Amino acid sequence: MKRIAAFLLLSFGLAAVFVARAALSITGAGATFPYPMYSKWFAEYHKKDANIEFNYQSIGSGGGIKQVTEGTVDFGATDGPMNDDQLKAFQDKHGFPVLHFPTVLGADVLTYNIPGITGELNFTPEAIAGIFLGKITKWNDPAIAGANKGVNLPANDIYVVHRSDGSGTTYIWTDYLSKISDEWKSKVGKNTSVNWPVGLGGKGNEGVSGLVKQTPNAVGYVELIYAVQNKMPYGAVKNSSGAFIKADLASVTAAAAGAAKNMPDDFRVSITDAPGKTAYPIASFTWLLIPSKFSDASKRDAIKGFVKWMLADGQNFTEALSYAKLPKEVVAKEEKALNSIQ
Amino acid sequence: MSTASTTLPSAGPAAGSRSFFSRLREGDEIARLITFLFAASVVFITILLVFELWQGSVLPRHKFGFAFFRTSVWDPVFEQFGALPFIYGTVVTSAVALLIAVPLGIGAAIFLAELAPARVSDTLEFFIDLLAAVPSVIYGLLGLFIVVPLMREYIQPALKNTLGFLPFFKGPAYGLGFLTAGIVLAIMVIPYIISVSREVLLSVPRDQREAALALGSTRWESTWKIVVPFARTGIMGSIFLALARALGETMAVSMVIGNAPVISASLFSPGDSIASTIANQFSEATGELYTQSLIELGLVLFLLTFLLNGLARILILVTSQRGSGMGNA
Fold it and tell me: A246-276, pLDDT tens digit by residue?
């Protein structure tokens, strides 16, 4: 017993020494979707510069926006860009704006479980909107069957599954639906959680995929990374050029490149339904939220140094973790914006 | 149980003549003061909790008023918030859970305390304590991957075929919903009921049993008519504990209830509960009205717990006219 206590004391002591040794600790909070990427980056950057330690809490995008506005963290992170009211709240509180920096890309895919169907299905925007509005209720509805010639779709009821927890995944999904369906836009809208017209809610990607896998005739949306890692079947989606595109790292980066031409200076852009022949239409950036002014010069330099590294060498780590890279145009633009941080 | 003292430094019965300082030196007063502070902190925390929830939900309380309790639209985009489906879901799932868990739990406790050999009883008690310590997310995953398919494939169709004429067993069998959530909750709270009830039953004085047996009652008669009524208050305590756990459970419920704000008499229908909604939506909620409405949901849950506990206590007062000797267990 005594020995255990002594060991614990020693390890606490050692931990304290190590914590004290990191000269600069930078705290951040926010989005959960890019968390695996961020923790990899922070670990790699710490190897590069042992004096700087990042401490990131993946508490959710809403929390990230709140905390960076309150000033309780050095930077925030979000899957959906801050809206004008939130930007104004930050400006009013601090006297200077907060900046968005895209870091990586994510995408949502439509996964399904139809007995007897093993092949890959094609979905038109009309079919997706119809299913999630509760207007298309059978798998053999012409809106689905029309895009899947030669596939023998059953006349079974469709079980819709959506996320029950607020999440960036849902934000991307509803952002896409709002763009392709006026009815969705006026009746449901886009947010991290919405008032769903139909369906069951599963908690997290694992909840949705669990329900889809075990419920015959179910359909639901999950993050691309989650679907890839768990080898789930997912459908191709018709993009704005009329091509059916399957989500993968290349088609997601293509969506970002398509949108990059019209990238606003504050980077708050939605790339769902993006132009481009090879662009996958249900994709999004995820952003770091960095105040444009720091009172602590060493923190400012550390964060700027990290973002600079993340945009260059850091991007090489993305694909191993199944995140899509930023297109070159966006990187160049971000490097410019980075200089404006004081 | 000692009578409540009105002033803090009041003396115990034997301390009348000694001065306050001598009592202080002997430690009695220090112990009294410290334990008083500990006890008072419970009240303080409760008050603080209500105060914070009240303060944190100013906007929706002003905007929706009592409509918050009566309406059933929960729309974060258009900022319309009504809590009725969540209140309904919380009450229904907890009721189903207790309906299943109370007879099972008390039955098992009676067996363990009265009928089983001591060695069997102690071994099983070990497993029950182990069950009580399993994190709720494990129960949730167990529910999602084992209970839900069982419900969908076997139990719900069977219920539909036999009791389908009742309004409780209608509609499509998703596998998820009020009934499944209630069953998973029941599995979670049974260990509490067994563990506490067993302890209470074991602490019933031996002479109560002996007297009953001496008067010619059978083993079961002495158990059911003497020992169980004697321990009733304590058993009720275990049910309170189970109810509190069921009302406030988040993860496990969230995984299996279907998370759709629906009010339906059918137990097959997906629904949602207060705790599950808060846990689901709070971290990503943006906008003051939205977050404050979630905080008001917390306040509603608190009031609901308070109300149901109060009702249960009144029920005990009314029913415990006869017999019952055990104090608070």
Answer: 999 999 999 988 887 778 889 999 999 998 8
Name chain A contacts of B286, Cβ cutoff 8 Å. Answer: 61-62, 65, 83, 86, 191-192
- Token readout for B147 is 């209970």
Q: Which residue of A has its CA nearest to B257?
A: A201
Distance from CA of A168 to the nearest CA of B (A): 8
Percent of chain A with pLDDT over 90: 65
* Residue of A83, A168, A200 with shortest CB distance to B270: A200
The string of pLDDT tens digits covering residues A87-131 is 999 999 999 999 999 999 989 999 999 998 888 899 999 999 999
Nearest residue of chain B to residue A29 (CA atoms): B283
C-alpha span between A263 and B207 (Å, rounded): 85
* Residues 139-158 in B contacting A (C-alpha not used; CB under 8 Å): 140, 144-145, 148-149, 152
Nearest to A61 among B73, B144, B284 (CB): B284
More confident position, B115 or B284: B115
Between strands A244-245 and A236-238, the pairing is antiparallel
Tokens at residue A84, please?
Answer: 């004008």
Neighbouring-strand partners of residue A123: A237
- Indicate the residue type of B232: R
**A contact test, residue of B73, B284, B294 with most A CBs within 10 A:** B284
A76 in reach of chain B (CB within 8 A): no
ipTM of the complex: 0.77
Q: Do B281 and A167 touch (CB under 8 A)?
A: no
In 3D space, the residue among A312, A266, A306 whose CA is nearest the CA of residue A285 turns out to be A266
pTM (2 decimals)? 0.82
Low-confidence ranges of chain A (pLDDT < 50): 17, 19-20
pLDDT digits (tens, 9 = 90+) for A313-334: 999 999 888 888 898 889 999 9
Work out the average pLDDT over B222-250.
Answer: 90
Proportion of chain A above pLDDT 70, given as a percent: 94
What distance in Å separates the CA atoms of residue A137 and residue A127, rounded to the nearest whole number? 10
Number of H helices, E strands in chain B: 17, 2
A272 Cβ partners below 8 Å, 6+ apart?
A172, A175, A176, A179, A281, A282, A283, A284
User: Are A165 and B176 within 8 A, CB to CB?
Assistant: no
Instruction: Give yes or no for a contact between A254 and A279, defined as CB atoms under 8 angstroms apart.
Output: yes
Residue in B149, B255, B272 nearest the CB of A207: B255
Query: How many other C-beta atoms can be found within 10 angstroms of the C-beta atom of residue B96?
Result: 21
Label the pairing between strands A159-163 and A218-223: parallel
For residue A316, give Cα distances in angstroms to A258, A325, A330, B165, B291. Answer: 21, 8, 15, 62, 38
Residue in A250, A251, A268, A269 with CA at minimum distance from that of residue A259: A269
Task: For residue A158, give how far its alpha carbon lies from the nearest alpha carbon of chain B (Å).
Answer: 12
CB contact (8 A) between residue A164 and residue B259: yes
